Amino acid sequence: VKAKGRNSYLFFHKNMEERSLERILLENEMKKAIKLDQFTLEYQPKIDIKSGKLIGMEALVRWNHPELGKIPPGKFIPIAEETGLITVLGEVILRKGCEQTHRWQEEGYTDLVLSVNLSTKQLYQNDLIEKIKLILRETNLDSKWLELEVTETAFTNIDNAQSILQEIRDLGIQVSIDDFGAGYSSFSYLKNLPVNTLKIDASFIRDIDLNKESQAIVNGIVDIAEKLKLNVIAEGIETVEQLDQLKDAECPQGQGYYFSKPLTADTFHQFLKKEHRL
Length: 278
Ligand code: C2E
Ligand code: CA
Ligand code: CA
Ligand code: CA
Prior knowledge:
The chain has helices spanning 6-18, 21-35, 73-83, 86-106, 120-123, 128-139, 158-170, 188-192, 202-206, 212-227, 240-248, 265-276; strands at residues 39-48, 54-65, 69-71, 113-117, 146-151, 174-180, 197-200, 231-234, 253-254, 263-264. By secondary structure, it is an alpha/beta fold. Helix 2 packs across helix 3 and helix 4 packs parallel to helix 6. 33% of the residues are buried. Residues 178-179, 199, 235 line the site of one calcium ion. One calcium ion binds next to loops.
């Protein structure tokens, strides 16, 4: 380290700090949890705003560690991405979601789209397409009932993103841009990328009933989406006032605590029974 001079020392030092004990601990615990099948999924309803009908659900990973308790995905997903564990964890998540959706289909709930979050790391995993195909085959889920949510950080290399997203679309899977508008969104990539849906970031919904700028942005996104023949969904809807603004903006779909929190598979099943009166 010394021989390489000051910069490499600093690099080494920073790296050690980043890989703090907690991180190393969580990495090891994640490996164990994958082996012991301790990751579960919750499902948050997605709603057609005009009719109020359920159209699908977003799968969200949950980790209830036997000693450490509930660890939020915002904490362990970034570590899973850094360490590469997201590859195997992502497969576990996709398989569980597809299995569960197929089970619900067999019970007669045949019109639900499952949305699964795909981290940028996963998008560029070289066997992603093969793995997705395998999981769909093994779980017997038709690809048209699967949607992958990808954030725009995946689009820094637009050519790479375009070809991999096209391969996903060629399988019959839908693609949604998550957290749309939150980063350095550029409408130019909407010209090139084969996506189906824009998911308006919750930050615009949070103050939409008070803030004219947020209203204008949401209206703009809905209009552009309509002209580009893209679907739009608003996330993080918590109040009736926010919902009313989205109705005014003619935003077709919504998701958030106002409709329902993410639910365990059992509770989501209860929700389905009520919704479909089966
Ligand atoms: P995201 O994909 O943007 O997911 C939305 C987050 O907002 C979820 O938090 C959800 O529980 C929460 N949420 C839903 N409705 C409301 C609402 O009305 N108000 C508020 N305040 N929050 C709401 P969660 O489950 O903690 O997930 C956080 C992030 O972790 C996700 O953001 C996603 O980036 C990541 N994540 C979660 N599950 C997975 C997964 O299975 N795979 C991957 N790769 N990432 C995941
Ligand atoms: Ca998401
Ligand atoms: Ca989101
Ligand atoms: Ca987010």
